[in-house]
Batch of 2 targets.
Target 1
Amino acid sequence: MKDYIAYCGLDCETCEAHIATVNNDNDLRIKVAREWSELNGVEITPEMINCAGCRIDGVKTPFCDALCPIRQCALSKDIETCGDCDEMSTCDKLKMITGNNEGALKRLKGIS
């Protein structure tokens, strides 16, 4: 099991918030904060762009830490990823990711 695969199947190693954290790249934090603010219609500051990885101990973005419904569900079920959940194929929360990201679904199916 790859540690940097998020509960939803996204690859944290390709996430710009993770990359900015690992490389301590403030310019990338500024870029990501601007993009995510526009995309989500909320103010996201560069200081919020810090994440070790969804399933890795350490810092998380505010969304990933406390607001992501997929992560909160997986934590409550004490599963390694959504690939270990019996409801994976019918989960509306997970479909928000896997419906737009075939790679995430493939990673989950390969992991479970």
Note: The radius of gyration is 14 Å.
Target 2
Amino acid sequence: MRVFCGAVGTSLAGNEWNNRTVLHHVRLTEVASVNNPAFNQQIGETQSLLHLTAESSRALFDFTVNSQAAMMGLDDIFYLSAVIFILIIPLIWITRPARGGRGAVDSGAH
């Protein structure tokens, strides 16, 4: 049962990470267009500094945005995990250990 829950949790976290990465990518590239003078200036500076073509400079920009969006998505997942862990802390005081047995010895665990 634990393996199943872990697999489902991993699947849900991976799916949400992908969704958050796409969201952050959209937000980071909202103003990145050929009509934006600041974007064109940055692409031009990257071209001249690294001696790249225009396509290579835009590809480097896209790679950087993809990396940052993935990191921001992962930050969101870790933040959500921290909130969930904080919310389940009271369960420690609500749950009680089983009575009337000696625990693992009586259950036949090895």
Note: The CA atoms of residues 12 and 104 lie 32 Å apart.
